[in-house]
Amino acid sequence: MRSEQYICTTCGATFENEVALREHHQTEHAMYECDVCAQVFVTEADLIAHRKEMHPQQEEAAQL
After folding, report:
1. HSE (CB half, 13 Å, CA atoms) of 4?
2. Lower Cβ count inside 10 Å, N or C end of the chain?
3. pTM of structure
4. Under a CB-based contact definition with an 8 Å cutoff, are residues 50 and 40 in contact?
5. Any idea where the domains of the chain sit in the sequence?
């Protein structure tokens, strides 16, 4: 039985599951840093979602 592999589109590394691939991206290819708490994200969309959920007061202030 062949297990499905997940391939990093940035570096070509392969992983046995999606969680391992996601963790790899977060540690090896993180590019977007939250200016409030310094957590890093692979995509801008993840950063935006994080800010809306974790720092809504700062998001509202930035829009003013």
Report:
1. 6
2. N
3. 0.53
4. no
5. 1-29, 31-64
Rounded Cα gap, residues 34 and 1, in angstroms: 42
Q: Tell me the CATH number of domain 31-64, given options 3.30.60, 2.40.50, 3.30.160, 3.40.50.
A: 3.30.160
pLDDT tens profile 3-50: 679 999 989 999 999 999 989 987 888 788 999 999 988 789 999 999
Which tokens go with 55? 């720092």
Output the six-digit token pair for 27.
């540690």
Helices (H), 1-64: 18-28, 44-54, 56-63
Residue 59, token pair as written in the block: 């998001």
